[in-house]
Write a structure and sequence with these properties.
Blueprint lengths: L13 H9 L6 H11 L3 H4 L24 H10 L3 E2 L6 H14 L10 E6 L6 H12 L3 E3 H15 L10 H23 L5 E4 L3 H4 L2 H13 L3 E8 L2 H11 L5 H5 L1 H6 L12 E4 L6 H15 L2 E6 L6 H11 L3 E3 L2 E4 L7 E3 L2 H9 L3 E7 L2 E6 H7 L5 E6 L2 H10 L3 E8 L2 H10 L5 H16 L8 E4 L5 H18 L1
Parallel strand pairs: 2-4, 2-5, 3-4, 5-6, 7-13, 7-14, 8-13, 9-10, 14-15
Antiparallel strand pairs: 1-6, 9-12, 11-12
Helix pairs in contact: 5-6, 7-8, 15-21, 19-20
Length: about 500
């Protein structure tokens, strides 16, 4: 073929050509010319570059020969019928067929459609992540979920800016941090679509999908790359959102759950994207499912108890917990998950990968970064600690942690404030083996300021450990737990 075209025989072996076919090596100009002569086509037709204005794409894709029947195909087709046009100018059938084609061809090496960037939007708890994963399982398209991608950076940024790591409701977050989240998400998506990889984005897109200029910029940028933008909006009702948010128990949702009426007042259930879009109705039907689940949850909660001990370093949390375990075998120390170095006794040591997996599943109840380490109260750990009617004792040094654990993990929690003077912390810290007493004293100051920021905090018991013996404090806590248990 090369000789017939008047070309010198290319210095290529079967391995080089195979790498071209597999996309591992991009053909140089001489190879591209040879391919064009071989297939009697232009570079745009072969996909080497985008077509110029006067060049037409003449290359036709071969239709799939796979028969459109079978129970599995029909089940997928029925599921895709849930994608209904939200506006008259939306090509619903085209999007359904694109997803179906990708599902059928993901293992056969070809897709007749241009790459797709699918935006799955909706309010918190509407079911965006579940739907995005459903599409990914059908098509093989990767999912980029805003929260797992940006959360570690966002939490650290919020702390550095003087806010709480789980702040998602203040002007600081909305004006300074939120735009960066979406910028990171889109830049990651562009890296995919530049490689002709269809991608599913999962994020609320509340402000973005309703901003014509923002959507037009996105669509224009994608069209310039030969990418089709599809917008899917998840419709939901307040009861369903509340149930989903409560079930996943993510730390970032604590403010929503504690201030549900205020949060719900800002939700517009009729809000829709300003561009052609598809909708998915994710409301629970029938409604009694929600009430049944809540009733079952309440029954389970009524049988579970736990103790939250809050206080500065060296306030006696370990000592009083030891006295409780001696008093009654049902009391057990909850060992927090620790990712980092240093002291290992009293912790379940974990890895960053394990933490990322917990966060992806929404199983992190509370996370605290201190002393260069990460300390986690996790849902699987609490579930295991409460098995067999046991009562775990959880140690916390942050009011945000107290609120999140008591709000996000259903159980009867007895909240105890343990306090000691700063001088006592300075004395006890080296006695118990700490090598960073200065950091513990700084934490004492931080705890005092933290407590002062929550003047309305509710406590079942306050104990001054400077003057109260551990066994006496344990007995008082046990009396409260037993009283609470009898009422339940």
């Amino acid at each position: 073929m090369a000789r017939a075209a008047g070309l010198a025989v290319p210095a290529a072996n079967f391995q080089t050509l195979w790498q071209h076919e597999q996309g591992e090596v991009y053909p140089g100009p001489h190879y591209r010319r040879a391919y064009c002569l071989l297939y009697r086509a232009t570079e745009p037709e072969l996909g080497f570059r985008n077509a110029l204005p006067d060049e037409a794409r003449k290359l036709e894709f071969t239709a799939s020969s796979e028969p459109h029947n079978g129970a599995h195909v029909l089940a997928v087709e029925r599921a895709l019928l849930q994608l209904t046009p939200g506006t008259e100018d939306t090509d619903g059938q085209g999007v359904q067929q694109r997803i179906l084609d990708a599902w059928k061809r993901r293992h056969t090496g070809g897709d007749p459609n241009k790459p797709t960037l699918m935006l799955v939007g909706g309010y918190a708890g509407s079911g965006k992540s579940e739907f995005a994963r459903f599409i990914s399982q059908l098509t093989g398209w990767p999912v980029l979920d805003k929260d797992p991608i940006t959360r570690p950076l966002v939490e650290r940024l919020l702390v550095e800016m003087g806010s709480e790591p789980n702040d998602r409701h203040t002007d600081l977050y909305r004006e300074k941090v939120r735009p960066l989240e979406y910028q990171c998400l889109l830049e990651t998506a562009y890296a995919n679509v530049d490689c002709a990889i269809s991608t599913v984005l999962s994020a609320p897109f509340i402000a973005e999908a309703t901003d014509p200029r923002w959507m037009r910029r996105l669509i224009n940028r994608c069209e310039a790359r030969g990418v089709t933008v599809v917008v899917v909006w998840i419709k939901c009702d307040l009861d369903t959102m509340h149930e989903y948010i409560s079930f996943r128990s993510a730390a970032r949702d604590s403010w929503k759950l504690q201030n549900w009426d205020t949060y719900a007042a800002g939700i517009d259930l009729e809000l829709r994207p300003v561009v052609p879009h598809l909708t998915v109705d994710n409301r629970l039907v029938p409604r009694f499912r929600s009430r049944t689940r809540c009733a079952r949850s309440s029954g389970r909660c009524s049988r579970r108890q736990g103790i939250l001990l809050y206080g500065p370093p060296a306030a006696g949390k370990d000592t009083i917990t030891g006295a409780l375990t001696e008093l009654d075998a049902r009391y057990v120390t909850f060992t927090r998950l620790k990712i980092g170095t240093g002291k290992t006794k009293g912790y379940r040591m974990g890895t960053p990968e394990q933490l990322a997996d917990l966060e992806a599943r929404g199983d992190v109840i509370y996370r605290n970064d201190r002393y260069g380490n990460i300390y986690v109260v996790d849902r699987p750990g609490l579930d295991q600690a409460m098995q067999g009617g046991r009562t775990p004792v959880v140690h916390l040094g942050q009011m945000a942690g107290m609120e999140q654990v008591s709000t996000l993990f259903p159980a009867h929690w007895v909240r105890v404030l343990l306090w000691c003077s700063k001088e006592t912390t300075a004395l006890r810290s080296p006695q118990r083996g700490d090598t960073d007493t200065a950091a513990r004293l700084a934490a004492w100051d931080a705890t005092q300021a933290d407590l002062a920021a929550y003047p309305q905090a509710q406590w079942e018991l306050r104990v001054d450990t400077d003057t109260t013996a551990p066994r006496k404090a344990a007995k008082r806590i046990d009396d409260i737990v037993r009283t609470t248990s009898s009422r339940a």
